[in-house]
Design a protein that fits this description.
11 helices, 4-stranded mixed β-sheet, alpha/beta, 9-stranded mixed β-sheet, 13 strands
């Protein structure tokens, strides 16, 4: 089943306590597209500069990501530089150079317009809307954003959110978007902005999904080695949307399975810098980690805890 993603394709400079890389391939659409490519046909919309190498295009080709919608313009490719501290929680952004994104106006190839599933990766909310306006009648629209846009273009972002079914966002960003420190209250406020489901990404603590009155929680996979959290959110979204596009049936159960698949892809991504691990993962490894996740969170057959509760009630 096919999936469309619009977002950034970037060169990143990243420093973590375990090392530093400069000018490596990154970008929200890149991480999303490669993660989703294990499950669905991905059509990518983005722009790069004339400094973008053919070698980087190969990554998309080998993962059969359709790049008909990847525009090449004269100028420099989007560049982001950031750093993570020892808790590897949130990046401190040192620089965001929009470069060719500054004048980008996405134009969808005709073959992209009927895509049923859409992911608006982290990018200017005005561009996200322009893409939606060119789509025929998408069945499911998911969206990501970040503090850069929450602070820089709040009105435009809220307009985009009116057309979104699922928002995936970090917990600090959810609080900021809703101007509400309590995450439950923040979720209710965000659901009132348009999305019918909200996924709050909590880094090494996993993710929460709010829909209607329900909340679903999943931990992150406890890894022996985490090198670089860059792209964790986008590879999560790629696994999540790729899985949904694959089963093409959105129910409470498939949403929960998709959240686990998103967490699986994010867990691989953080094991190496850039896309070094994500690009090389195998289907057996994906299935094995999905099972490991199930074991991690499974507690239905360990008893109900009733005795302890009765003791407290005496
Ligand atoms: P994530 O860690 O999943 O939030 O995403 C990391 C990727 O987002 C990096 O590879 C960056 O190139 C990209 N990125 C950072 N800031 C922005 C921004 N303002 N707009 C679009 N993409 C960005």
């Amino acid at each position: 089943m096919s999936l469309l993603v619009v977002g950034s394709v970037a060169f990143d400079d990243v420093r973590t306590p375990f090392g530093e890389v400069r000018g490596v391939l990154g970008g929200s659409a890149t991480y999303f597209g490669i993660a989703a490519s294990y499950f669905a046909d991905v059509n990518l919309v983005a722009v790069v500069g004339d400094d973008f190498t053919d070698e980087s295009l190969d990554l998309f080709r080998t993962h059969r990501v359709n790049i008909d919608g990847l525009e090449r313009r004269s100028g420099k490719t989007f560049r982001w530089s950031g750093e993570y501290g020892f808790d590897l929680k949130e990046a401190t952004t040192h620089a965001t150079h929009l470069n060719v994104f500054e004048t980008f106006e996405p134009k969808l190839p005709a073959s992209y317009r009927a895509c049923p599933y859409v992911f608006l990766a982290n990018i200017d909310p005005v561009l996200q809307r322009q893409v939606l306006e060119q789509m025929e009648a998408p069945e499911l629209v998911a969206c990501d954003t970040m503090n850069f846009w929450i602070e820089g273009k709040p009105k435009e972002l809220k307009e985009t959110l009116r057309h979104v079914d699922i928002l995936t966002i970090n917990d600090s960003e959810a609080r900021e978007l809703a101007s509400q420190p309590n995450i439950y209250e923040a979720a209710q406020a965000i659901l009132a902005m348009g999305p019918s489901a909200l996924i709050v990404k909590r880094g090494e603590y996993g993710a929460l999904m709010f829909n209607e009155e329900k909340v679903f929680a999943i931990p992150a996979y406890p890894l022996e080695a985490v090198f670089d959290p860059t792209g964790a959110g986008d590879s999560f979204a790629g696994g999540f949307m790729g899985y949904l596009a694959n089963v093409r049936n959105v129910t409470d159960a498939t949403l929960r399975q998709a959240i686990i698949m998103g967490s699986v892809m994010a867990s691989f991504n953080v094991e190496a810098f850039s896309l070094d691990r994500l690009r090389a993962v195998t289907y057996d490894e994906i299935l094995e980690r999905f099972k490991a996740f199930r074991r991690l969170v499974h507690f239905e057959d360990i008893g109900s805890g009733e005795l302890a509760v009765q003791r407290l009630m005496i």
